[in-house]
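hi! just following up on the protien thing from before. the input was this:
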Amino acid sequence: MASATPAPRASQPLPFASPEQLDPRLQDFLEQASRQLCVWLGSAAERSPLPGLSVLPPVVPEGHGLAPEVLLADLQLVMDGAFNPNHPGALAHLDPPPLPASVAADLICAGLNNNMLAEELSPSLSRLERSLTAWLAEQLGLPVGSGGVAASGGTLSNLMALVTARRQRGLAIDGRAVVVASIDAHVSLAKALAVMGLPPEALRPVAVDSQGRLDPSALEVELDQLERAGLPVIAVVATAGTTVRGAVDPLSQIAGICQRRGQWLHVDGAIGAVFGLVPTHRHRVAGLERADSITVNPQKLLGITKTSSLLLLARPQALAEAFHTGLPYMEPSWGGSHGGESGLQGTRPAEILKLWLGLRQLGLLGIEAVLDGAIQRRRQLQALLAPNERLQLVCGSFHLLAFTPHQLDAAGSQAWSDRTRQRLLQEQLMLSRPQYAGRHHLKAVLGNPHTKPAHLENLARVVHASLDDQT
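and the predicted 3d structure came back as:
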């Protein structure tokens, strides 16, 4: 006896936007989500920068897709547990509030769903990336014809820079090759060497001076020692804005040494390179224009939504020479090279869109105002803390300021910084607690445009009180 044929399941319409007409469901869903985001941003001052508790909604998809109102409710739960960079007291990290134009461009980027792998998958956006990276490179002083590529974070930009330098110097398969940088250089360099198949000792640290800047004379000694040992150098990495104090290595002197010795100079300007975009602050990164490659992270101060990093090169063709493999499944490039051939990433979103629109919203005067405000807030906080002789302050010429009591050892500074950070959080002021020179510090990053003088005065009051208690 034949078995009964199972009844077909009722089909559920898939939730994709209509390609034939304006989809009211999509419009309503995005408008509701936008309102939700606007309320979250607009109520930032009512919540702490760091949420005390968070509730995670269900993670696993259910049998049937959820209705928009359920999705938005679950989304709100995640938002409620998120870090709150729009709060005026969010001063812990290099994570400023987002620019509205950059937020909008992020939405459009997702909706376009173009792929920067190849030009036929992102026609206008590929041209936009080439044009904007060329302008940014020349604005920072690199020669005409310079340019680069967008990347998902400064770690990736630094990695691509070192891979490119290694190829250009003919060291692609030389396991003896090394990279020279200051002892305060970013940890991403160690990651890059690991990815490149080099041992930890391939990163050669150079001493810094009392201001946290790479010592040029120590660099010369290190390069001499490497030459005598027969160890080839992939690149010298200078830092324009170290992570804790924002120190800038003496770029002009280092560039002179590299030029004389025929070394590749990469500048990790993830924090500070943006100061070179306007004439009034360009002196803070003097010598940046002499680099072979530069990492720039507009996300760290200018409010471009994450991620927004760039690798810029004096000769951008070196990227294709380092990463070209051929894309036989794509039509030939009509603009020079496909995006997937000009860097490590293949498939990637058009992150250049939010940078372009965000910079257009700010304008050059707006960029200058953001930089001015950050420097002014750092100077104000420094002036409020400096009279206290029990406090050791470390900073550079940017908007970072770290401090710890003079008299405390490693254990004491750890306990003091932990206790004081908790007191600050009770006042809705969030600072970070990095280790530097063997001791814990509190660090303020003064890039938040919502932070007012009263917030800084309150911050200083709490810190001074904590020192009185310590005594």
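The CA atoms of residues 167 and 322 lie 6 Å apart.
The chain is about 40% helix and 10% strand.
cheers
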